[in-house]
Amino acid sequence: MEEPFEVLFKKNEYKPFEYKGKIVSLADTFNVPIGKTKFVIKFEQVNSLWEQGIMIHSNEDTFSVNENECRSGFYLWQSASLSETEFIVKSSTGEFKVWNIWRLNNKPMQYGHNGAALYIEEIPNGKRYYCNDGSPDDDFDDLVFTIEKVQE
Fold it and tell me: Are 45 and 36 in contact (CB under 8 A)?
């Protein structure tokens, strides 16, 4: 990789751009219905020396995960979570943000810098995320996970 994604995002004003035939971004905007909707997160693969996780965020919405209500968002570490975790969003905005996060040796979480990037595959009822953490490579296999709407 010639330049870290951090440099490429800066050159592209932090907007998604095409890289080796895929559209990459720093985060994703996940559109949801207004009201209450249930989702499931499935961790599929981890291939990093660093602890991997995801952050779900929306300033105006409320989330319920693992029987805890969270205002504006939550995060899950792959090492401390079940392979599948359900959550409910009570949305007034119709969207939430999805970020890949990572940390080294239980230090504070990091995201959005150096090698960070992700690309997305649309799947039935949701999306699959291929994440590149802060390490400056472009293999997009540091964390692979899905978010799917639960059909009730």
Answer: no
pLDDT along the chain (152 residues), means of 10: 89 96 97 96 95 96 93 92 92 96 92 95 97 94 97 74
Burial 116-148 (b: 16+ CB within 10 A, else e): bbbbbeeeeebebbbbbbbbbebebebbbbbbb
What's the rounded Cα separation, in Å, for the pair 77 and 1? 27
Instruction: In whole angstroms, give the CA distance from residue 46 to residue 68.
Output: 26
Per the structure block, which two tokens stand in for 34?
Answer: 């207004």
Which two tokens mark 78?
């792959």
| 10-to-23, 55, 69, 101 alpha-carbon distances in Å | 15, 22, 35, 19
Q: Which residues pair with 55 in a beta bridge?
A: 75, 99
Give pLDDT, residue 151: 79
Count other C-beta atoms under 10 Å from residue 152's C-beta.
5
Q: What is the pLDDT of residue 12?
A: 96
- The single-letter code of the amino acid at 73 is G
Cα 137 to Cα 6: distance, rounded to the nearest angstrom: 11
Distance of alpha carbon 59 from alpha carbon 66, whole angstroms: 20
